[in-house]
Write a structure and sequence with these properties.
By secondary structure, the protein is α+β, with helices and mostly antiparallel strands. Helix content is 20%, strand content 29%.
């Protein structure tokens, strides 16, 4: 989904999202990730937000970004296909660039999005994404949570140990999902999410 940055600042998003229920111990872990492309054809391999959170990417300036986004419901099938070529190859840590022809051949649904400067791309919980640029550019992204991250089970999905050889010191801390109790989630929805019934839009209120 693409939308305008006019009404909010992505730097504040973790503090306005469901993550705020974890207090500063959780929210301070989330800072924007800056991505820079120094010329045309820069590639950003397949990744997913930590612990299958939602994420948002803002394109500040430069050449257009071409995204290939695989929804979470296609992850298991895609992993089976990748395991056929290289078992236990990780889909989450930027170790793999997948030819879209492989996705087409195996009937894996994906979304292709072209993002221009000043536009936001919002990735749903658990989505996988890879991209390339038309020219030099820079953008930033950050993860956040909505109630469906807990309610639909994304947060509690067991992630198999990958073989990326990433030191444990560099892996993010696992968020304790027990702090997101149903009554606190409902209170968050009531006080922070404004649903407009006429166009079924959802607005995240500032705090």
């Amino acid at each position: 989904e693409k939308t305008s940055r006019l009404y909010f600042d992505i730097h504040r998003l973790p503090y306005q999202s469901l993550l705020k229920l974890g207090g500063t111990k959780v929210t301070r872990q989330f800072v924007p990730c800056v991505k820079r492309a120094f010329g045309p054809g820069a590639i950003f391999p397949m990744t997913s937000a930590r612990q299958r959170l939602f994420s948002i990417d803002y394109h500040h300036e430069g050449g257009a970004h071409h995204w290939y986004i695989v929804p979470t419901r296609e992850r298991e099938i895609l992993q089976e296909i990748i395991d056929h070529y290289k078992p236990s190859m990780c889909l989450d840590h930027g170790q793999l660039l997948i030819d879209p022809l492989i996705l087409d051949k195996n009937h894996i649904r994906y979304h292709r999005v072209i993002q221009h400067p000043g536009e936001l791309v919002v990735l749903s919980a658990g989505a996988l994404a890879q991209s390339f640029t038309e020219d030099a550019s820079w953008s930033e992204s950050i993860a956040f949570a909505l109630p469906s991250w807990i309610e639909e089970g994304h947060a509690s999905v067991s992630v198999p140990r990958c073989q990326c050889n990433i030191s444990q010191d560099f892996l993010p801390e696992i968020i304790d999902t027990s702090i997101f109790r149903p009554e606190l989630i409902q209170r968050y929805i009531t006080s922070h999410l404004n649903v407009t019934t006429d166009d079924e839009s959802l607005t995240l209120k500032g705090s």
